[in-house]
Design brief:
Helices cover about 80% and strands about 0% of the residues. Helix 1 packs parallel to helix 3 and helix 2 runs antiparallel to helix 3. It is elongated and about 60 Å long.
Length: about 140
C-alpha cells in the first residue's frame, strides 16, 4: 500500500472515530440540556467528521487510478486531509466553548486567508487526483 493510500485510510479511521465520539458527546448534551439541543458546533463537528471520513475513502479510491508519482499523490491527498482535520478540530473547539453558532460572525484576522488556503488545498488536491483518473481512463 502506498504512503498516500495509508494516509487516506488513517485519516478515514481517525475522522470516523472522532465522529462516533462526537456523536456520544452530542447525545449526552441533548439529554442533559434544557432545550434538548447539543451546542451548534458539537453537532457540526459530529456531521463534518462523518462526512470527511467518507471523503477520505473517495480520495483513496481516486488514488488507485492516479498515474502520478508517489510524491504528487501524497501531496494531493495530504493537502485536503490536513484541512479536513483542521476544520474538525475547529468545530470541536467551538463546540467545547459553546460561545457561538457562527464562527464567521466575529472572524479572526487570519480567518479569510485560512479559508482561501482551505479552498485551494481541498479543491486543488482533489483536482490533481481527478485529473489523474481522467488521464488514465481517457488517454
Amino acid at each position: 500500500m502506498s504512503l498516500a493510500h495509508t494516509i487516506a485510510l488513517l485519516a478515514c479511521g481517525t475522522f470516523f472515530m472522532t465522529a462516533l465520539l462526537a456523536g456520544v458527546w452530542k447525545w449526552r448534551a441533548m439529554v442533559t440540556s434544557e432545550d434538548h439541543q447539543a451546542p451548534f458546533y458539537v453537532d457540526t463537528a459530529h456531521r463534518a467528521a462523518l462526512l470527511y471520513s467518507f471523503a477520505c475513502l473517495v480520495l483513496a479510491e481516486f488514488l488507485r487510478h492516479s498515474p502520478f508519482s508517489e510524491t504528487i499523490n501524497t501531496l494531493a491527498v495530504t493537502a485536503p486531509i490536513l484541512f479536513f482535520g483542521v476544520a474538525i478540530a475547529t468545530y470541536l473547539r467551538l463546540g467545547w466553548l459553546d460561545q457561538t453558532d457562527n464562527q464567521f460572525a466575529t472572524p479572526s484576522p487570519t480567518q479569510h486567508g485560512g479559508m482561501v488556503l482551505l479552498i485551494a488545498a481541498e479543491i486543488g488536491g482533489f483536482a490533481v487526483l481527478f485529473a489523474g483518473f481522467l488521464i488514465q481512463r481517457f488517454s
